[in-house]
Amino acid sequence: MKISNVFLIFVFLSLMAFSCRNTKVIEADISDDFDRTILNLSRSYFDHLPDLDLANMSPENRKIVELGKKLFYEKKLSGTKTISCASCHDIAKYGVDNRALSPGDKNQLGLRNSQSVLNTFMFEGQNWDTKFKNVEEQAAGPIFSKLEMAMPDTSELIKRLNDDPFYVKAFTEAFPDSKPSVSLDNIKIAIGSFERTLLSPSRFDDYLKGDLNALTTKEKLGAHSFVINCKSCHSSALVGGGFSVEYPIFGYHNDYSNNGNTDKGKYEVTKNPQDMHVFKVPQLRNVEKTYPYMHDGSVKTLEDAIRICAMAESNMQLKDKDVEYMTAFLKSLTGKIPVHALEKNKTFD
Q: FRET label pair with 129: which of 22, 205, 213, 261, CA 20 to 30 Å apart?
C-alpha cells in the first residue's frame, strides 16, 4: 500500500512538472473599449511614418539619390580617406555605430553620441544642438569638422571628386543644368536626397493605421504608460522632438550624470543663456538598436534611459512595471532597415 501511494505521488508530481513546462504564459487581457482608447490616445500624439515609393521615383531624382548614396559611402570625403558618413552611421546598425563617441578621420573622438540617420530628415533641426536646419545643410558639417571627417577645405573636396571620372559623369548626369556640376551645394543636395529615403516603418505604424493586432497587450499598455508619462517631450511620427516640440533643458529637475552636466548644448551655437544645457529631443524610432543613449552615450540600457529621463525631466521615479511595459512598447518601434540603402545593394530596384 505504501509503495502504491509513493508511486501515485511520483506520477502526480511528474505530470505537474510536465504541465508547467508546457504551459504558455497568457497575457493579461484588456477590454475592447480600453484597447480602442489606447489606439486613439496614441493617434493623438503620434503619427505613422510617411510612405516611400522608390519604384515610382522619377529618373531625375533617382540619379541624384543614387549619387548621394555613393557619396554617403565615399571615404574620399575625409581628410586621410579613412572614413565615410557610413562609418558613424552604419545603415545595417540602424544608422549608428553603437559607440558612446565615434572615432574620426585620425581616430580622434567626437564630443557627442552619433545620432541615427534613419528618419532624421523629419526633424526641423539637425544634430543634438540643432545647429543645422535640414539634412542637406547638415551633410557638409561632418565633412569639414576637425573631430570627424576632417576634410581640410572645399577646394580639396571638389578636386578629389573632379579627379575621379565616375563622379564627373555622375554629377553631370544628376545636375545637367548646374555649371559646374561638381559643387559643394550639389554634394549636400545629393547626400540629403539619399537621407530622405531612409525610412524605417515598424509594427507601430501598422498599429496607428488601425491594425489592433500589430502590438501585443504589453506593448499597448506600454504605449498607454508612455503617453501618460512622456508625451510632453516625445511625440510626432518620430516619437521624439518633431516639428511641434520645443527643445527642453536636459536635466531640468535632476542632473543625470555622475560628475556634472558639462556639455552646454545649444548654447554653444546660439550663446543665448536660455539655451544652456538645451538639446534636441531625440527620436525613439529604433531606440532598441541605437544604444548607447543620451547625448554623451553614457547610458547603456534602454531601461536605465527610461528611468533617468523620468527623473531628469519630470522628477518622477517610475514603477518597475511601467518601465517594463514602456520598454516593450519602445521595442515595437524597431522598424525595417531600408535595404536599398545598404552599400552592397547597387541599385534601388
A: 205
Provide the grid cell at 269.
Answer: 551655437
Domain count, the chain: 2
Q: For the whole model, what pTM was predicted? A: 0.87
Domain range enclosing 113: 54-198
| Peptide bond between residue 152 and the one before it cis (omega within 30 degrees of 0) | no
What is the average per-residue pLDDT within 294-315? 90
Decide if 335 contacts 286 (C-beta within 8 A): yes
Provide the pLDDT confidence category of residue 24 given band limits of 50, 70 and 90: very low
Compute the average pLDDT of residues 339-347: 85
**Grid coordinates of 229:** 508619462
| In a domain? residue 66 | yes
pLDDT in tens, 307-321: 998 887 778 899 999
Q: Is residue 4 part of a domain?
A: no
List, by residue number, the catalytic residues.
148
Confidence of residue 245 (pLDDT cuts 50, 70, 90): very low
Say how far apart CA 72 and CA 91 lie, in whole Å.
Answer: 10
Domain boundary among 171, 198, 225: 198
Q: What is the pLDDT of residues 121-162, one digit of tens each?
A: 999 899 999 999 999 999 999 999 999 999 999 999 999 999
Task: Decide if 269 contacts 129 (C-beta within 8 A).
Answer: yes
For residue 235, report the phi and psi dihedrals to the nearest 5 degrees: -145, -165
Residue 292's alpha-carbon distances to 115, 174, 213, 287, in angstroms, are 10, 37, 30, 9
What is the mean pLDDT of the segment spanning 260-288? 87
Instruction: Give yes or no: residues 236 and 273 share one domain.
Output: yes
Question: CB-side exposure of 288: number of CA atoms within 13 Å?
Answer: 12
Judge if 160 and 173 occupy the same domain.
Answer: yes
Query: What CATH number should be reported for the domain holding residue 289?
Result: 1.10.760.10
Neighbouring C-beta atoms of residue 81, cutoff 10 Å: 14
Q: Which of 176, 198, 220 is the last residue of a domain?
A: 198
Whether the CB-CB separation of 79 and 151 falls below 8 Å is answered with yes
Q: Which of 171, 196, 188, 207 is nearest to 53 (CA)?
A: 196
Q: Is residue 309 part of a domain?
A: yes
Per-residue burial over 244-255, b = 16 or more CB atoms within 10 Å of its CB, e = otherwise:
ebebbbbbeeee
